[in-house]
Write a structure and sequence with these properties.
Number of domains: 2
Distance between the termini: 39 Å
Number of strands: 15
CATH topology of the largest domain: Rossmann fold
Bound molecules: 3,4-dihydroxybenzoic acid
Length: 368
Amino acid sequence: ALAQEAVKIGLILPMTGPFASTGKQIDAAVKLFLAREGAVHGGRKLEVILKDDAGNADATRRLAQELVVNDKVAVLAGFGLTPLAMATAQIATQAKVPEIVMAAATASITEASPYIVRTSFTLPQASEPMADWAAKNGIRKVFTVVTDYGPGIDAETSFAGRFKQAGGTVESVRVPLRNPDFAPFLQRVSEAKPDALFVFVPSGVGAQFMKQFVERGLDKAGVKLIGPGDVVDDDILEGIGDVALGTITTHHYSAAHDSPANKEFVAAFQKANAGMRPNFMAVGGYDGMKLVAKALEATKGDSSGDKLIAAMKGASWESVRGPVKIDPETRDIIQNIYVRKTQKVGSELHNVEFETIKDVKDPVKARK
Ligand code: DHB
């Protein structure tokens, strides 16, 4: 490619439909990256082409194909849900175009193509530390409720496996991805009175879950709420309200992460987006752009897929979430996982980090 030609990034996100909050967060973060860190990297200008798949995998596949064939994008990015990332894997492999997964978090995604690199997280990476924390803090009997697809199943099996090893007992229920009803399940929980309820729902769905949790009186029944951080997503935490107080979660990013770089990031994001608080999806999007920029710098502007992927493997930088590195073996992200408690900071609700587990790899692949 000519040195002065733009490097096109096809950004496919759910901008409409039930998972539009993920698209909105990542789109805002990509724009903020370009505004703060510039569009020229390795001598090449980044040009983002945004497409809305509305969370529909057939649309993702068609858009990815068009972006590769018609627009000649050098990179595909986005992928708000696991099925959307999986639907694109074959296209990435055949076209030798890097697929940067900024959101989806089922562990197996990076195994679907050697061209997939992930800047979000994996559910086992976030859920096993939750099992360790629960076992160490007097919790013996846990109910799990997860959304019934890749990330939910990963969250359930990784938490339960680890927690049972530590001597705990687990009962599990799954709810559908589309139009979930938590009420029948919560009734069972209120009868069984476990020490804790472990929850995974995708980003944006937490408010709905919490509403039914309160309606069943479970907040007053002494059932502790635990899980990966998706249920207390920063984007909707203020909307969930005080019922979230005391929830313990393990995750890779909180808007309350205490570092000067994060404070600047949150302030800039809120300023550019009418006060919207960045969540973990925004950080996956921001770092996805950072990764593309770093790779182009390393290749001195060569945007061929194989060169970019080679440069991405082992890349490391200081993210607003803390230090991160792309695992050269798995193309997943190695990062700190924080134990957080939802509490008031001034008048605002935040997930306040109080313990750090450093440099966590995806545990499923680490055991292979
Ligand atoms: C996935 C989607 C989410 O919104 C989330 O919080 C975690 C995982 C997914 O589909 O992989």
